[in-house]
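HUMAN: Would you supply a protein with fold tokens?

ASSISTANT:
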Amino acid sequence: MSGEALTLAVAPEGEGARDVLRAIRRAVDGPGPAVLLGAPGEVEVPAGTAAVVTTSGSTGYPKQVVLSRNALLASAFATAARIGEGAWLLALPAGYVAGLQVLVRALMAGHEPAVLEGRFSPAAFAAAATGMRSSRGGDRIPSFTSLVPAQLADVVAAAEADAGIAAALASFEAILIGGQALPQQIAERATALGARIVRTYGSTETSGGCVYDGVPLDGVRMRIADGEVQLAGPTLADGYLGDPERTASVFTTDDDGTRWYRTGDAGRIDDGVLRVTGRIDNVIVSGGVNVSLDRVERVVRSLSGLAGAVVVGVADERWGETPVVAVAGAEEALPDRLAEVREAVGAELGAPARPARIVVLPVLPQLPSGKPDRVALRRLLNGPHGRRD
């Protein structure tokens, strides 16, 4: 990453969405400096940089991802080509790439974004959605938004009991869902309410989602190399600020000059459609057998009432590590479902993958992005708990 250094306009994670909007408008639509998100201070960046987004995902390893103006615009225009353009509602933190891209898409479409201020709730979401309905020349302006699965689950549950929230949910031309896997039962319930769900796949390193419903956006390429999902195209980040070694290991270049991003995800491509099967590194060794916690979690979430479950590995004196299911709520009977859960997981993935227990917590730890904080959850649950056979 070389070039003319620019001083960043600082917009830390804690500042309001309107502050980020003003800064990113100057960076993308004018000559303004790049915007730094998620970290304090000022740094120097290559010429052409629009934003530096600090992210750690679920690993706890902080990274400052350098996104160029061209990459952000390529993503925004490709999204418009796939789902259409119109007005956007920001319901995610503006300091993360999914929220940032909502702002960029709105700016490129020529519409001031609606912003859901304060704590997210189904009622606040519905009020914001209702307030943004507008038309031009007698034609309704399509509306769009982007949510994480936990937000959608809350809205769906509320919409099933409230016609006003249901109408707001169904009012969007498309609702992008990313950040983590969307449980199938939540998707089906949302669709039954009239919601038009688009599952997105991508990361900060790809300027947000760049594969929609398994199909890459225009200009984006995908492949499976040694079992890993890799992505190429104009939406790729320049790399990691001040970390050339990590940049070189994650962004690789073929002999023909094609630059690829190594996602760290396992997957396959069937008839041009990407199927992500889990994180390559989200694997434990239990009794000498490799167990994919993502696959265990997928089975558990398919069971009634467990769509929000999170599966992590904990230390085990006999087996080394073993899966544990964590659920938010106050239902004391949930641990009694362990036999059901173990039977379902064992039938699909084998005995070593069967969870040792179900733990009910008042709330599950989350990252500010809305994803489960698996590092914090593992720390909370780790201990000398044995696995049942």
Q: What stands out?
A: Confidence is low (pLDDT under 50) at residues 1-5, 384-389. The chain has two domains: 6-270, 282-381. Residues 282-381 form a domain with the GMP Synthetase; Chain A, domain 3 fold (CATH 3.30.300.30).
